[in-house]
Structures are given as structure tokens and as C-alpha cells.
Amino acid sequence: MAPSPRYRPEPAFRHGREATTGLLFCNLGTPDAPTTPAVRRYLREFLSDPRVVEIPRLLWLPLLHGIILPLRSSRSAAKYASIWDPKGSPLALWSARQAGLLQDWLDARGHRVMVRHAMRYGTPSIAAELDALKAAGAKRILVLTAYPQYSGTTTASVFDAVGDWARSTRHLADLRLCSRYHDQPAYIDALAARIRDHWAANGQAEHLVLSFHGVPRRTLDLGDPYHCECLKTARLLAERLGLARDRYTVTFQSRFGKAEWLQPYTEPTVRELARKGVRSLDVACPGFTSDCLETLEEIGMEVRDAFLEEGGTEYRYIPCLNDQPAWIDALGQLALDQLAGWPTQDAPDTAALAASAERALALGAEA
């Protein structure tokens, strides 16, 4: 029996084909359907990642397969069913739309960049989409994640998947990895525009909660920058909105297990705000660029119910960036910054060349 090949087969070589540039936009992932078997497959892949759960494998895997997956899959499937769109998972739909709009944005500005999207867990996989970009002729590939704030549990896991693909690939493309953009002005502007638009349509509540996805507290102690980058995003956003420090609160959601996670936790904080007399509350999730289970079900339903149970009267969830024009502009600007130096245009930018010549003449005259 012949041994299995170490490397993936290379796409058919075509003489004279011009090398092109690709961009892979990566999000976390989602089940293929809101059913127990599909959710179980998804959770198995997600929770088996040592970047996500750092418990020793000998302890964690029996617990995962023997208790967590059997108990949690059906409960999670019911939650997914409550937010599922007739066309599919909201996160999958938004991710595909964002990639398509980014392609349109780059095309409209004369940049020849092939844009595809992938999921770290589930489909379409990172390896499959990198293969597709290679097969289409990409010799340069930028990997851009949907995570503005870097975390080992998310960003680094995407890079692990890219590395796994690279280890099984004979002819590698040039690769660039964008690790964070939590303080990029265009991203902050897009968040501020989303919130201002919501306020213009619905009025501004007494208080704003900015809820980020949580991670175990020990990741901060071990040097993960995620907590600090979330706080910086929140501070810059509040400044852009002109909010005083007592008008907003930063929290962390989606805690899993009994270990301490980043605090303050979102639901207990919202309950406490209501008990202290806050009657109207707006909640936004700046770290999520696409609406998904954690925003639509957890924040839009569970946390809303908690606030109203404690005496709150008005609760409004502010949707994620999704397909907002300001967000697509931010994505496009970020992509061009990261692609700098790689050829992406059919013809020279004559305006840029003229401006460069004028600057050179000016410098020569000054000399």
C-alpha cells in the first residue's frame, strides 16, 4: 500500500499566467445547521482546539466527549434555531456578504485582488479556501481576520490553521497575516457611526454597555493582550462618541465553565445597573464585526431578559457592523495598508505618480 502524500497536489501549471494577489477574510465559524448533530460536530472541532481550551488533553478530551458535547449540543442547537435565518447562519451570511462587498470595494478602486472568506471552524475551511486562491493563481495572499482585537484564542488559532496548511503545501505563496486593528481610526469611526445611527433612529438610552467576548482570566496573566486591546477600543469609541466615563461600562460575555474569566461579566453588570435605577440601556458589541449567536441570542435575548427582570424598562441591542458602508470602507483601507508593496493594480496610478513627481521636484528645489 502506497504511503499517503506528505503535500497537497499542486494545481496544474499554466505557462504565462500572471501571478495575482489574494485576500482571505477569516471568521470564527458556525454550525452548518441548527441541529444537534451539526452543532455537536462544530463544538467538537471548536472545543478541541488547544488555543481555545488550554487544559491538558488527557484531562480535557474525556470531559469534552463524555459530558460537555452530549449535554451542551442540544441546548446550543436550540439557541441557534432561535436566531437562524431562512438562508442560513447569520454569521455565515454576514461573513460572505462582507467578503463580497470588500471585493466590490477593491474592484471599484482598480485593485486586482481575489477576495474569499473562510471559517476557522466549520465550512468553508481555511485550508480549502487557501487551496482555491492558489488554484486561481494567487502567489501572494493576505490573511485578514474578523477579529479587531488580538487573542491567542482567536487570531492565533487562525494563524495556526494557516501554518497547518503551509506545512502540507509544496509551493507556498507569499503570506501576510494581519493580527489586529483594534485602534485603527476607520474601524473606530465605523463603530461610532453605527451607534450614532442607532441613536438617531431610536433615541439614546441613559447608559451604554460595550460588551466584548470573554476569555479566561489566566490568559491575561500569561501575557495575552486581548483585555488591554478591548479597553483601548472602548476608550477610543467613547471619546469619538463624546461619552463621559460614567455614561458607559465595558463588560465581557459568554463565560464558559467555572474558572474566572475577564470581568466584569455582562449579565450581572446589566442586572446591577437596573437595580441601581438605570431604566433605559443600550448594548453594543464592538469586538464582533458580524451578528451571530453571541450577539443575537445572548445579548439580544438573554441579557435583555435579565435587565427587564431587575426593573429596567427599555433595552436596545445595537447591531454589529455587518454590511455598514463605513465598515466596508474600514476593511478596504485596512486591506490596502496590509497589501502595501504588492502589485494589485492593472495600470499605474497616474495621479499618484504625478503627486510623487511633484513632491520630488519640491524636495529638489528645497535642496
Features:
EC 4.98.1.1; 4-stranded parallel sheet; heme biosynthesis; porphyrin biosynthesis; 367 residues; Rossmann fold; alpha/beta; iron
CATH class of the largest domain: Alpha Beta
Structural class: alpha/beta
Number of domains: 2
What's the Cα radius of gyration? 23 Å
Q: Helix content range of the residues, please? A: 40-55%
Q: Largest beta sheet: what is the strand line-up? A: 2-1-3-4
Number of strands: 8
Q: Please state the second-level CATH architecture of the largest domain.
A: 3-Layer(aba) Sandwich
CATH topology descriptor of the largest domain: Rossmann fold
Low-confidence parts: 347-357, 363-367
Please report the number of helical segments.
Answer: 12
Mean pLDDT, rounded to whole units? 93
Q: What this model shows, in words?
A:
There is one protein chain. The chain folds into two domains: 20-182 and 325-339, Rossmann fold, CATH 3.40.50; 186-317, Rossmann fold (3-Layer(aba) Sandwich). The chain has helices spanning 36-47, 57-83, 90-108, 126-135, 155-167, 185-202, 217-221, 226-241, 266-275, 293-309, 325-339, 350-366; strands spanning 20-29, 113-121, 138-145, 174-178, 207-213, 248-253, 280-284, 314-317. Helices cover 49% and strands 15% of the residues. The strands form two sheets. Strands 2-1-3-4 form a four-stranded parallel β-sheet, with helices on both faces. A four-stranded parallel β-sheet has the order 6-5-7-8, with helices on both faces. Helix 10 links the parallel strand 7 (280-284) and strand 8. It starts with 19 loop residues before the first strand and ends with a helix. The chain is α/β, with parallel strands linked by helices and 367 residues long. Residues 347-357 and 363-367 have low confidence and may be disordered.
